[in-house]
Every structure is written in C-alpha cells, then in structure tokens.
Amino acid sequence: MFKVSRKKELLAKMKQDNMVLIDLRPVEEYNTSHIPGAISVPLEQLEEYLKTLNKADVELAAYCRGPYCSLASQAVDFIQKQGFTAYRIEEGAREWNAYDGE
Q1: Which of 25, 53, 80, 102 could form a disulfide with 29 if both were Cys (CB 3.0 to 4.6 A apart)?
Q2: What is the CB neighbour count within 10 angstroms for residue 64?
Q3: 85: helix, strand or coil
Q4: 56 with 82: CB under 8 angstroms?
Q5: How far apart are CA 24 and CA 1, in angstroms?
Q6: Residues 6+ away with beta carbon under 8 Å from 14
Q7: CB count, 10 Å around CB of 96?
C-alpha cells in the first residue's frame, strides 16, 4: 500500500514508465479532480484495461475516494489475481494533491 508520505517514490516509478496509476472512480469524478499522471479506469472497465497490458512490464497503483473507500482494495485484489504487481493508494485525489511534505 502506498501512503501519501511515499508520494516521491510513486512519482519516480511513474516517470520510469513502469508504474501506471489508475483512478477507479467514475469518469465524472476523475474529470473534476485526480492525481496528476493518473488515468481513468472505472472499476467496471478494469478487466478489459488489464488485457491491454503486459504483466512483466508494468506495476499498477490504484486509488478511489480515500481511506474508507473499498473499491481500491477490491481492485488491487483482482489485479493481483490476474498476475500483476499492484498497490493500493490509501488516500484519494484531494488528500494526495493537498500533501506537500517530502
């Protein structure tokens, strides 16, 4: 699980192109606010999206509305069962974007 305090580590992995950050919320919520660099993959589209990826080349990090939203946990469990390396980001977009610590 990634916490906002590990923000720099996640951003570094994303810059190396081996980490994909996915926002599981509905597209409307993603369009309102999201973590920079995240792509919108609503939960109902996740299975199809995974078919476009090579398991050996990418790790995934997923988030939804915040620490009490169970969508990200469910999605990460599903992603891992498909053979991918996946992490849950505990915070939502608002908390992530508000964090300015190291």
Answers
A1: 25
A2: 25
A3: strand
A4: no
A5: 16
A6: 20, 21, 37
A7: 23
Q: What is the pLDDT of residues 37-94, one digit of tens each?
A: 899 999 999 999 999 999 988 999 999 988 788 888 999 999 999 999 998 988 778 7
Query: Strand, helix or coil at 102?
Result: coil
Show the tokens assigned to 66.
């915040």
How do residues 6-38 score in pLDDT, each as one tens digit? 677 777 777 777 889 999 999 999 999 998 889
Q: Is pTM beyond 0.90 here? A: no
What are the residue numbers of the active site? 64
Rounded distance between C-alpha atoms, residue 10 and residue 2, angstroms: 8
Rounded Cα–Cα distance for residues 84 and 68 (Å): 24
Q: Identify the pLDDT of residue 102.
A: 47
